[in-house]
Each structure stands twice: as C-alpha cells, then as structure tokens.
Amino acid sequence: MKFTMLVLKNLLRSKRRTFLTVFSIAVSLFIFSALVSFPTLAREVLADRASSLRLAVHNKAGVTYSMPEAYKQRIAATPHVVAVVPESWFGGIYHEVNDQFPNLAVDPDQVDLVWDDWGISKPAFEDFKRLRTACLVSGGVMKRFGLHVGQQIQLRGTVYPFNVTLNIVGVMNDKAPPNFLLFRRDYLEEAAGRPGFVSMFWVRSDKSENISQIIASIDEQFANSMAETRSESEAAFMGGFMQGFRAFFDLAEILGLIVVLTIGLVAANTAAMSIRERRSEIAIMRSIGFRSGTILGLLLGESLIIGLSGGILGCASAYVILKVFAVGSPAIGISNLRMPPIVIVEALVAACLIGLLSAWFPARSAARQNIVDALRLVA
Fold first, then answer.
1. What range does the domain containing 79 cover?
2. What is the DSSP letter of 62?
3. Domain boundary at 191, 226, 261, which?
4. 60: DSSP letter
5. Is the model's pLDDT at 65 over the cut of 60?
C-alpha cells in the first residue's frame, strides 16, 4: 500500500497518454465482448437442451415439408413415448413485418406433458385446453409488445391467407424460446379447411437413455412411406438450426481475438515508450536503494491498472449497449443478446494480460539495466 500513491502519481503524469491507452483498450474489449457474446449464448442454449427429454420428428426431406397428422397415433404407440404434440407453422405477423416472431399451432391435449419445464401455470394449461382461441406467449414477446394475460391479439397470416384472433391465457418462462407463441391447431385446421398435415411432431420420452431407441423405432416405422421421418433429440434439432450460423460464430471469435491481439501490440508500444522516457528516473530510484523487483512491480502495477480500467469500461459499455438495444436471433433461441458471465470474465482476464504482458519486457529491461550506464546516458 505504501507504493500506491507513487503508482497513481506516475499514471497521472501524462494524463492524455493514460486516457488514450485506457480508451483504446476499452474500445477493443467492447468489440471483443460484443462479438464473443453471440456464440457463447448459442452454446449455452445447446447446453440447456442437452438434458431435454423431447424429440423433434420432422420430414426427412426438410422441416419445410409436411407430414400427415395420422402419424400421431403410430408415434404415440412407440415404446417409451410419453406424449406426442403435432405442430403446424403459422408464421403470422403481429403488426408490421419487423414484428414477426415464431408462432405455431399445436394440439392442446398433451402440451403440459411435453413442455412441463416452461413454467406455465396449471390454470393457464387448463384455459389453453378449454378455449379454442387461447394462446401461450413467451416472456420476451410479452415484454416486447407490452402484452398482458387476458389480452386479445390478432396475427396476420403469411403462409396462410387468413388472420387468427387469439386470447392470451398464459406466459412461458425463460426455459421456452424467448420469442415464441403457441395457439391451438384445431383452430388453425378449421380456418384452413382441415388439410390434415403438420409441420412436425414433438415427442416426450420417459427417460433420456431411451431417446436413441425411440428415434430408431419412429424412423423405422415410416421408412419408405410417402413422408419419411427424421427424428432428433431437441439438442440435435437446435444444433441443426445453429449450423447455418457456424461460419458467423467462428468469424466473430476470430475477429474478437484479432482485435485483442492488435490492441495488445499497441499497448506494448505505448508502455515501451513510456518506460524508455523514464530510464534515468528508474536508474536514480535504484541508486537510492529501490530493488529491481520493486521497480518491476511498480511498472507492472501501473500497466495493470490501465489494462483493467480499460477492461471494466469496455465490458460495462458492451453490457449496457446490448441490454438497451434488443439484438438477437429468435431462430436459434436468442432474442436479446446479452453478455454471459463467462464473457465478462474472459474480457477482464484479457485486459489484465494486455496490461501485464505489454509492460513486462520493457519494464524488466529497465528494472535490470546497469545504473552507471543509465546515468551516463542522462549526462
């Protein structure tokens, strides 16, 4: 603690240089945090789905191809299947085109069994089964549009040439996709003229160890049929959607690393210039009794404070901006991009490393320089 004032005094001797260095580190770590948050959140979404007992059964040709709703009975009869919920994509728009979010029609009878972890109250499930125009809405959609339970809303059809009028009966928690709405498929079927086809089936297994057996059984049942199936665990199904973003995720992480390395080189150059200007001062400090290790610690302490200050400023800015501006991708289960705790830790560790490593070599050299040679250069 007795050297704290000395470190702070040295930091403030060139306020402009210190401020610009802190600011440059803050900007770089702001960019790093924003870029790395998206792939980190995507991995968290997949990790959350890894323990799910749900399976997605869709057309082998792709999720845009439909399947007969009659498959439901055969899937439900498969060993170890607890519940089956057919799903039909509606794709309606709430107000404007940019207000679009995933909205799906499902059979209501086993919704509470398949999605029992979505935090929907029992009365809400009962209302969903009872009321033909009922819908369940995620918390992200409720907050985004200022909706409330009991409110009536209308979705304009895009895939279908008609609108649906719905009554909100319940809210889903953060375990559900953040931008999401479920309503009853019998209502959709009636309005569409009962085509008898669905987009996919959601299946609930009794145990996680039986998922692979269920997948094999279902796909074997419908092999060589008019609509062959492809069954996947929920994690694999979500991973398939995210596969299209893989290149973006990799690029974001590479760019974040490049930005950090670049600012590290800039900080190293700044630290070298600063220490070079103080060689005579360091020589005098050694001549009056300061040890090399003490001087090295003082110089590294100055650089560490600069790096950590920039890291805190950059992380705080990224956190606030990502929170204020709703950025995300509902398609992969991320509505509002936020900074995961692990990204904050990584950014602060990077800030500390920038501070320490940028000053290590010039500070070590200056602390170990020959006192006579250094004083001779001054003279």
1. 66-226
2. -
3. 226
4. T
5. yes
